[in-house]
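Researcher: For the record, we're logging two predictions in this thread. I'll number them. Prediction 1 follows.
Model: Prediction 1, sequence and structure:
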Amino acid sequence: MDMHSVLYLIFIIAPLTTLIHELGHVSGSLAVNADYIQLSIGTGKRKMVLKRKRVEFNIYPAFFIGGITRSERAKPYNKTESVWITILGPTFNAITALISYLLFEVFPSEFLQLLFWFNMWMAIVNIIPFTINGKRTDGFTILELIRK
């Protein structure tokens, strides 16, 4: 992989894949009627805030380093609703991987190939239950919810 591809992966594909993943969680939260949803991309001092109805979107300068979605509702989520919100992140990545693969078969490009592989990686890694430095994967959260 050349330097151009690495930069492309870090500054375009990774943030786009993270956004797709977090939008999965946002969609799940909207589906179960969350009162407030906050999607944040990146780290550092907040640079931009976009608000639309009950969704707040925060962008940080290091936009290529991770993301998180939080949602709240006056009535606590039940187990099924929590699993639904959680599983839609990796599901959105798996769907994006499938779509990018199908498009790559028709329109081969480095962008679609990187989009496919990074979304596959994101879907698979996030569904495996483990924790690192106190951060849990979606798979860990789902397993924890099922065990309760």
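Researcher: Logged. Prediction 2.
Model: Prediction 2, sequence and structure:
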Amino acid sequence: MKFKLSILTLLIIFLFACKKEKTTTKKQQVVSIENIKQETKEHKHHHENIKIELLNGEKWTVDKPMMQHIKNIKSDVMQFTGKSLEEYQLLAKKIDTNLELLTSNCTMTGQAHDELHKWLVPFLEKAENFSNSTTTKQAKDNYQIIKSSFKVLDQNFK
């Protein structure tokens, strides 16, 4: 439960920390938070159907500071050789730490930002599932899902 709250908080921070020119009232902010919650629920149920659109057939550029956190996560995942549940849990904590840094340092705007969300929101769900693994088999299966998600990232972002 604590992790779910943390992920939701990160998502909210990520969405609102990005540079926005528009100011909102408290009522608009409450509506926006409700929209984010609904979007997160929808992504959880339909994220496999979301297709990332390329920019005229070219990969989207992710801002360097943000891409560094993504690269850190990918590096940790790809170099992982652990076998025990405790080792998988340590990796999950590293992923969570980098996701917090990624979302709290969002500098992107526009369509590139929106397209990155199409990868990131499902990734947050996968990271949550990985973190909540209670058996080594579950952790191993969720690790493979996390690992394979970087194929989509590599196909669409640079």
